[in-house]
Amino acid sequence: MAARRRKRGARDSEPGIPSPPGYSAIPIKFSEKQQASHYLYVREHKVREGTKSSWPQKRTLFVLNVPPYCTEECLSRLFSPCGAVQSVELQEKPDLGDSPKEPKSKFFDPTPVPGFQVAYVVFQKPAGVSAAIVLKGPLVVSTESHPVKSGIHKWISNYVDSVLDPETLRVEVDTFMEAYDKRIAEEEAKAKEEEGVPDEEGWVKVTRRGRRPVLPRTEAASLRVLEKERQKRARKELLNFYAWQHRETKMEHLAQLRKKFEEDKQRIELMRAQRKFRPY
Description:
One of its GO terms (cellular component) is UTP-C complex. By secondary structure, this protein is α+β, with helices and mostly antiparallel strands. It is 40% helix and 14% strand. The protein has seven helices and eight strands, in the order αβββαββαβααββαα. The chain has helices at residues 2-12, 72-79, 127-133, 152-162, 166-193, 219-233, 243-273, and strands at 24-29, 38-44, 60-66, 85-91, 117-123, 139-140, 208-209, 212-213. A hairpin with an 8-residue loop joins strand 1 (24-29) and strand 2 (38-44). The longest helix has 31 residues, at 243-273.
């Protein structure tokens, strides 16, 4: 195993190691004592024309082969000589989605990836990306002024960070719930505006809230919807030409029967009140 490790280290330290097409190789070392170098592969982050991206164009550096001991703070420090770094984010794999990303949570994000990762380094100016692509090394990750914890010291630090602060956790939960309630309220208001309104072709979108339908099952609401649809299609199409027209005719007839039934009930109640109703 030791011989295999020495052999791989010797191969990594050889000059002229090829990099993937379109990438530039930057050697890094964990410390000054380390002789073998590890290589980061970098290029400017680009997306296809017409595709949205969460990262600003011409100011984002995409980094491959980031080792586990290299944190976001380390990458920011390593690339800071190229220009002011705005943000750094590590991920398990490249971000292919075009939807806007939600801000990272300190408490509810998944467990960090233990293996190699990719990184997105955002500079404040496009010149930072150009300077990082031609950056020469090797760069040192752990220095005396900025030591990187490893071994038991890193385990102790991870355990201390795992102990949550109740007040900070409460603030983050409250902030998340406020944003969630606001989004749900906006969705419900939009659905209420579209409730019972037919589209250009006359179709009415019916959704459900639990076990109750969105459209109110009252005679007045049914008559209003049916009347609007009938007026739109009266001059355009033949009556009862399609199957859906047969269904709507039946629904309209049923609504009229319900209306007549309610009127008869009111008439009977009025006659009873006047003591003139004699059924026998």
